[in-house]
Write a structure and sequence with these properties.
13 helices; N-acetylneuraminate-9-phosphate synthase; N-acylneuraminate-9-phosphate synthase activity
Length: about 350
């Protein structure tokens, strides 16, 4: 069982704790602060645990040529990539306003720090945990500095190998034990054949002392629900108010009705996981009483006869008698009264019968 830790104040993840659901707003707010607040409210209303953004200090994330290159995509908000990114980037004060709004309505707030200076700001902002995006998972100096901040970490693994994830574990674990890995494939939208949910199981085997989760970019909710059934303790999905809006992430995002359905489905699956102990349950008693079978006399059996298998059969009987699994135990037992053909074999009809206790 994965180790538990407190990801946010009063909210633990791992072990038998409920799945922590992150609504990744990212930059789907279109650079509009009011819209960003609407999306935080939507995440809260749909039942998500956390609203998450992406924070960059652009001159630290990109070099000058990357910011100056022309950007002619239909999703562009400017003539250059730098202009595009600046349109989508909130200021520090705006982040403080968003965090306060999230706190006021009762949902956790954090962001992926997309560079080391962004992590410094988010640490100052006092977010409950750091999200490490897939693009920084193999950025080992970044990981080390982020881990040393002492906040819990959620680390995505898109574009990485198992060997790299072992290195990440070895770097972070001695510094900060409170972290988890998310299986992730970095494609938007993600096709089912590229999801590789079995990596969740591989991570659970390779890293048994940390929680494992799933960050999905597929369409729909079925795959994310399946991830929870496989043991994902954190689920992250991009969200939007409208999939047709400008921006490369909207198409792979969930609209409000889908997010609400995802949360509902995850909570239903968690209830359905139940117990590993197999036993007759109270809810099955009515069905067992109506349809459960008993051992019945196949022929007339006189008092004093020793039971043989060819004297017995199994039917739905009235009254109830020995259950079918007791039929072989009855062979060789002596009956102490006449039993008519088709009559239920009861304990009162068999000498010195001792019921075997089920384990």
């Amino acid at each position: 069982m994965s180790r538990e830790f407190e990801l946010c104040p009063g909210r633990r993840v791992g072990g038998e704790q409920p799945c922590f659901i992150i609504a990744e707003i990212g930059q789907n707010h279109q650079g509009d602060l009011a819209l960003a607040k609407r999306m935080i409210r939507m995440a809260k209303d749909c039942g998500a645990d956390c609203a998450k953004f992406q924070k960059s200090e652009l001159e630290y994330k990109f070099n000058k040529k990357a910011l100056e290159r022309p950007y002619t995509s239909k999703h562009s908000w400017g003539k250059t990539y730098g202009e595009h990114k600046r349109h989508l980037e909130f200021s520090h004060d705006q982040y403080r306003e968003l965090k306060k709004y999230a706190e006021d309505i009762g949902i956790f707030f954090t962001a992926s720090g997309m560079d080391e200076m962004a992590v410094e700001f988010l640490h100052e902002l006092d977010v409950p945990f750091f999200k490490v995006g897939s693009g920084d998972t193999n950025n080992f100096p970044y990981l080390e500095k982020t881990a040393k901040k002492g906040r819990p970490m959620v680390i995505s693994s898109g574009m990485q190998s198992m060997n790299t994830m072992h290195q990440v574990y070895q770097i972070v674990k001695p510094i900060n034990p409170n972290f988890c890995f998310l299986q992730c494939t970095s494609a938007y939208p993600l096709q089912p054949e590229d999801v590789n949910l079995r990596v969740i199981s591989a991570y659970q085997s390779a890293f048994p002392d940390i929680p494992i989760g799933y960050s999905g970019h597929e369409t729909g909710i079925a795959i994310s629900v399946a991830a929870v059934a496989m043991g994902a303790k954190v689920v992250e999905r991009h969200v939007t108010l409208n999939k047709t809006w400008k921006g490369s992430d909207h198409q792979a995002s969930l609209e409000p009705d889908e997010l609400a359905e995802l949360v509902k489905a995850i909570r239903t699956v968690e209830k359905a996981m139940g117990s590993p102990v197999k036993q007759l349950l109270p809810c099955e008693m009515a069905c067992n009483e109506k349809l459960g079978k008993s051992v019945v006399a196949k022929v007339s059996i006189p008092e004093g006869a020793v039971l043989t298998l060819d004297m017995l059969t199994v039917k739905v009987g009235e009254p109830k008698g020995f259950p079918p699994e007791a039929i072989f135990d009855l062979v060789g037992q002596k009956v102490k009264k006449n039993i008519e053909e088709d009559e239920t074999i009861t304990e009162q009809a068999v000498e010195n019968h001792v019921k075997k206790v089920k384990c």
